[in-house]
Amino acid sequence: QGDTAAALADNDQAAELARTTGNTPLLASILANSVRATANAGVANDKRYTAALEITDKLPATSLKASLYINLGQSAGMLADSRSPWLERANAALLAAEQTADACGDQRALSYALGYRGRLYAEHGRIEEALTLTNRAVYAAQASNAPESLYQWQWQNGRLLRAQQQTDAAITAYRNAVVTLQGVRSDISIAQPGTHSTFRETAAPIYFELADLLLSRARSQQTPEATRQDLLEARDQVENLKAAELQDYFQDDCVTDLQNRTVRLEEIASHTAILYPIMLEDRLELLLTLPDGLQQVTIDIPAASIIAETRHFRQLLEKRTTRQYLRPAQQLYEWLVNPIRKELQRQQVETLIVVPDGALRTIPLGALYDADSKQYLIEQYAVAYTPGLFLTDARALPRENLQVLLNGLTVGIDDFPPLPNVASELEQIHSLYEDSTILQDEDFIVSNVEGALQKNPYSIVHIASHGQFSSDRNETFLLAYNEKLSIDRLEDLMGLSQYRQQPVELLALSACQTAAGDDRAALGLAGIAVKAGARSALASLWFVSDEATTELIADFYRELANPQISKARALQHAQVKL
Q: Can you tell me the mean pLDDT for 38-50?
């Protein structure tokens, strides 16, 4: 929690108790942890380090002793620079850990001792020695069947080879790290209790660094096919991260289930393009899939600049009384769309499918603005989004005789205000589709929704109610009359028809919101359709005008009634009209 003084006070009290009881191994552990607490705060404490080291030295050669040396070595390494005694202390402690692990036959501890020593050498420019130690760490981790350490040293190996500009060897090392990591993915986000780290925070750098290498190599390949293979693999590595991130968010295998049942969004229709932005530390890579192939466009804008501009854009979009959002809208258009605009025009693209990542998931890209034509992106193209190409069922479904289940709240519930225009919204949709059912206010209860979905194969489930999407899936819900509908509960309800021949074509959610600046919250928005078994979702990113929503939704469904118009085009027409 960042309270170093309180942590040390507790450590010291615990150490005194350990001394009183004569528990030397426990005392050594407590003292080593106190050293880590000071190191985490950037404070060098010779007295604590010396005390911990002296007691550790006296312990017999066991796995505990090896782990204590590793702990002390890491702590010293956090304080080390090329001129300080802490560098030598770190190296000596890790060398002692290596010798102890070797003596007691603990290959797993040996892999950590060697790996951290290799990392220490790498941080101080001794790349060849770091490579030798890291390779030994890989072998030790393999010998002990310890994938949770193996992936780290394979990753470190890739970074070191990259530093030596051995691109092909580095790519192989990164590939090995990704394969190993996939096997322990479910353990990664809980590996460090109390840190609240997500799988993405822990593991995303591996995927993006591998994608970076592949995208860089693609530009120098000698044949078009070699270039294409590198681009596809780079995209697929980011896709693997997206799928793992959704699984981490939902804490179940719904994504795997979906991947097994879907057709990949790969071959696209005429007049359609897929835009796959990959934000890297030093640049933006745009992968553009067109009916005639895959293209790569590189823009020298670092990810940090794109994220900052996206955050700014999102905040200004919610200020209804100004047009301040236009400047970031223009800037994002320049970065994301302008570099591919001529190609889109040449191929007469009408629908743009975007696979956003990170901060880009939190904004409506249709609101980007082209200063030259004085048009928003939504005026130029129908825009659709997918959380991942592997997560999209691209098969077209017939839309004749659609059955629609309409659910909504007009009254205030608890702290949530009334939504008076919802009644008109539901009624207008009902008038467009004869085969539709309305569950409103006291009729919009979970048991009624369950009964309706069991009875009829609804193509569209529309919910006009308050909803919240959060980085915490347990705080993500839709509001029914009698309770909050969690993602899990919604999955149960939608699952009643999930595996039928005609799955739910559209889950529409109006009056919902996601937290600004919360990239992970958007997983709930995009992923709720994935988890609930719907083919697609339409939702608001924040609270919008109740009156405007009613008008937009009515026009959308009016357009959707025409089977020749796609959902993306139907939404585009409604947005442009409004």
A: 89
Q: Could you tell me what percent of the chain has a pLDDT over 90?
A: 54
**Whole-angstrom Cα distance, residue 52 to residue 240?**
43
Where residue 331 falls (left for φ over 0; alpha for ψ -120 to 50; beta otherwise) is alpha
- CB contact set of 302 (below 8 Å; sequence gap of 6+): 280, 281, 282, 283
Question: Which DSSP letter does residue 192 get?
Answer: S
Burial class (CB in 10 A: 0-12, 13-18, 19+), 156: buried
Dist CA 468 CA 325 (whole Å)? 24
CA distance 317 to 540: 13
Helix (H, G, I), strand (E, B) or coil at 518: coil
Q: How far apart are CA 216 and CA 214, in angstroms?
A: 5
Instruction: Report the half-sphere exposure of 224 (CA within 13 A, side-chain side).
Output: 3
User: Distances in Å between the alpha carbon of 11 and those of 31, 32, 59, 92, 296?
Assistant: 7, 10, 20, 25, 54
Confidence of residue 203 (pLDDT cuts 50, 70, 90): confident
Q: What pLDDT, in 10s, does the model give residues 101-132?
A: 999 999 999 999 999 999 999 998 899 999 99
**Residue whose pair of structure tokens reads 């802490």 in the numeric block:** 86
DSSP collapsed to 3 states, 37-78: HHHHCCCCCHHHHHHHHHHHHHCCCCHHHHHHHHHHHHHHHH
How confident is the model at residue 291, as a pLDDT?
Answer: 85
Other beta carbons less than 10 A from residue 168's beta carbon: 10
Nearest to 357, CA basis, from 337, 314, 387, 335? 387
Per-residue pLDDT averaged across 398-418, rounded? 84
Where do we find the tokens 């204590």?
A: 68
Cα separation, 274 vs 535, in Å, equals 18
Structure tokens, 553 = 């939704």
- pLDDT, tens digit, for every residue of 466-475? 887 776 767 7
| Strand, coil or helix: 62 | coil
| Alpha-carbon dihedral angle through residues 154, 157, 158, 163, given to the nearest 10 degrees | 170
Q: Which helix or strand (DSSP H or E) is residue 353 part of?
A: strand 351-354
Q: Cα–Cα distance between 549 and 557 in angstroms, integer?
A: 12
Contact of 112 with 70, CB cutoff 8 Å: yes
User: Under DSSP, is residue 251 helix (H, G, I), strand (E, B) or coil?
Assistant: coil
Where b means 16+ CB within 10 Å and e means fewer, 75-86 reads bbbbbbeeeeeb
Residue 499's pLDDT band, with cuts at 50, 70 and 90, is: very low
- Nearest alpha-carbon partner for 217 in 255, 171, 260, 175: 171
- Residue 115 tokens read as 């790996």
- For 406, residues 6+ apart whose C-beta sits below 8 A from its C-beta are 426, 429, 430, 436, 437, 438, 439, 440, 462, 464
Query: In this structure, what are the phi and psi dihedrals at residue 352, rounded to the nearest 5 degrees?
Result: -115, 115
The two tokens of residue 148 are 């949770």
First to last CA, the chain: 48
Burial class (CB in 10 A: 0-12, 13-18, 19+), 508: buried
Query: For the segment 138-154, what is each residue's pLDDT rounded down to a tens digit?
Result: 999 999 999 999 999 99
Q: Which of helix, strand or coil describes residue 336? A: helix
Nearest C-alpha neighbor of 57 from the set 72, 39, 40? 72
**pLDDT score, position 172:** 97
pTM of the model: 0.84
Q: H helices within 164-223, ranges in order?
A: 167-183, 185-188, 199-218
